[in-house]
Write a structure and sequence with these properties.
The structure holds two protein chains of two kinds.
Chain A (H helix, E strand, L loop, with lengths): L6 E8 L7 E8 L4 E5 L6 H8 L5 E8 L2 E2 L13 E4 L11 H8 L6 H14 L1 H5 L10 H13 L5 E5 L7 H18 L2 E6 L2 H7 L2 E6 L2 E7 H6 L1 H7 L3
Parallel strand pairs in A: 3-8, 3-9, 6-7, 7-8
Antiparallel strand pairs in A: 1-2, 1-4, 4-5, 9-10
Helix pairs in contact in A: 2-5
Chain B lengths: L1 H31 L6 H21 L2 H4 L1 H28 L7 H23 L4 E2 L8 E4 L2 E4 H23 L1 H11 L1 H6 L4 H27 L1 E2 L5 H14 L4 H22 L6 H13 L15
Antiparallel strand pairs in B: 1-4, 2-3
The chains are: A alpha/beta, B mainly alpha.
Chain lengths: 240, 303
């Protein structure tokens, strides 16, 4: 890792009011990497991503993106800087059509021909979205909604993509399809990915490095392959 | 039969005015789930800005020479004034309370309504202000039926605004962003849509439409007074609820229905009760179908 991290959390404390969801969380993501954060339900994984995006208030520490602090930047400015999140539960706009959802991913952009090209690119990644482009988002299946949420995020032209539980509630075959696309986005578009997953096995197979989050604190940091073979991790998160 | 058609025409005219006001209630509710009780005051303010400028132009003699230009200018000035007034009200009185319980901002809206109404009284006086009367004399006669030129203006301008609003909300990117903000503000922020801008825009558009309605009302009834916002405001709110609060098409439909019912009720039942019909409808809707005509689900049908 010769280069500087593109995203770094420095001793971050955050949470709502008196509830401290994160305590002293530090992590680094280097350009081009896939990094996984694994941990149990309620460990603070989603809060970590929401804190990076400025939705959950940061109380102490700092978030550095692309060399400068983003803790005072409004959440809606971050996608314009290339930092975009696909939140847990996908949160597509249910009463907008598939195509409208994608167009809104490009809300801040005004390069019309290129937006059109990017929409076609999303349809080539996820052909089912192309077939359903005029359907309301809410009528899609869970897997299709996850595809739409990722597609919408790609429309923001992210340098760093934050993915929160992309496997949640999906059938194994769909999960594999989605993780193939995630790997493809990382490899072919050079998009850096920070992935949060309860499904540790899946996440650590996709990622190069991983962090383990327990009750709001990072307890372990290692190469993903080492974490996969770490007996403690296998016992706690991989069901052995 | 003639009288029925005449009533129908009058009902459409009044209904269109209510529809324009109702849109402001429903759009604001759609985006921030607030019943903006101050909305009727934007309507009144529009009526006043209209009469002030029309009288001013009349005093200069321009009304005789350039009536269309004067009227257009008055409409545009009133729309701009009310749009900025509404945006200011939202920033000062509603935005700081956005994270509080919903009742807090509702009470703030009631307070703003009283404040604006009294402000109008103090600055413009308690007596009615007459609209320049030489406007739109006459009309088209078909036997016993008369369609005044003013009615033609009101109905066609209303129709044009409704079409324009529909295009804006359903066909443009900014309209998509409004609907997205109504559905999920956090997610909207995650795709770079600033909800503050969208909320301001919503208040501005709603108040501009109310301003147009205010001038129409002034022209139609010949005068304005400082508390003119109250009753039409509540009737338009009833219209928005009838159509399904948060639903734009519903507000247009609800406005037309309330206008018709008022005119027909006054014509065939009793003129004394003309204000009662809208409230009977409001109570009936809240009792039997609180989601209104176009509303499917209270939590699920927004802009």
């Amino acid at each position: 890792m010769s280069s500087e991290p593109i995203l770094e959390l420095k001793h971050v404390y955050s949470g709502y009011g008196s509830i401290k969801a994160l305590r002293n969380v530090s992590l680094k993501v280097y350009p081009g990497e896939i990094v996984a954060i694994i941990g149990a339900n309620g460990a603070g994984k989603s809060t970590t991503l929401m804190t990076i995006c400025g939705i959950v208030p940061l109380e102490k520490g700092d978030v550095i993106y692309n060399g400068s602090s983003i803790k005072r930047i409004a959440p809606e400015k971050l996608p314009t800087l290339g930092l975009c999140q696909v939140p847990e539960g996908r949160r597509i706009f249910p009463r907008l059509t598939v195509e409208e959802n994608l167009i809104l991913g490009a809300f801040y952009r005004d390069d019309k021909p290129e937006i059109k090209r990017d929409i076609d690119h999303v349809y080539s990644l996820f052909p089912v979205l192309g077939e359903r482009s005029r359907q309301q988002g809410g009528t899609l299946s869970g897997g299709e909604q996850q595809m739409l949420a990722i597609g919408r995020a790609l429309m923001t032209k992210p340098k760093v993509l934050l993915l929160d539980e992309p496997s949640l509630g999906l059938a194994p075959i769909i999960i594999h399809q989605i993780f193939d696309i995630i790997a493809d986005i990382n490899k072919n578009q050079g998009t850096t990915i920070l992935l949060v997953e309860q499904n540790a096995n899946l996440a650590l197979q996709a990622a190069a490095r991983g962090y383990v989050l327990e009750t709001g604190e990072i307890t372990l940091e290692d190469k993903a392959s080492s974490l996969l073979h770490n007996p403690e991790i296998r016992k706690a998160y991989l069901g052995e | 039969m003639d009288s029925f058609i005449q009533q129908l025409i009058n009902g459409i005219t009044l209904g269109g005015i209510y529809a324009l006001i109702a849109l402001g209630y429903t759009m604001v509710y759609g985006v921030i789930q607030l019943i903006n009780f101050a909305h009727g005051e934007f309507f009144a303010a529009g009526g006043y800005v209209g009469v002030i400028f029309l009288s001013f132009f009349a005093g200069l003699g321009y009304m005789e020479t350039h009536p269309v230009l004067c009227l257009t200018a008055s409409f545009i000035l009133a729309m701009m004034y009310c749009a900025y007034l509404a945006i200011g009200v939202e920033k000062i009185a509603y935005k700081p309370l956005r994270k509080e319980a919903r009742l807090a901002v509702l009470l703030s809206a009631l307070g703003v309504s009283i404040f604006l109404s009294n402000g109008l009284m103090l600055t413009q006086g308690v007596y009615v202000k007459a609209y320049p009367s030489e406007l739109f004399q006459g009309g088209l006669n078909f036997g016993m039926i008369t369609i005044s030129y003013l009615q033609i203006l009101i109905v066609s301008l209303t129709a044009a605004l409704l079409v324009a609003l529909n295009l804006l909300v359903f066909k443009t990117k900014i309209g998509m962003a409004m609907r997205a903000t109504a559905q999920d503000k956090t997610m909207s922020a995650l795709v770079a849509i600033g909800s503050n801008n969208i909320i301001s825009l919503t208040f501005g558009i709603g108040a501009a439409l109310a301003a147009v309605a205010g001038i129409m009302m002034g022209l139609y009834y010949g005068s304005v007074n400082y508390d003119m916002g109250f009753v039409p405001g509540i009737k338009a709110f009833s219209a928005a609820v009838l159509g399904g609060i948060g639903n734009i098409t519903g507000a247009m439909l609800g406005g037309l229905i309330i206008g018709m019912v008022e005119i027909f009720g006054a014509g065939y039942i009793s003129g004394e009760y003309k204000d009662v019909f809208a409230f009977i409808i409001l109570i009936g809707v809240l009792y039997f179908k609180p989601t209104g005509i176009m509303g499917e689900n209270i939590d699920d049908t927004r802009v």
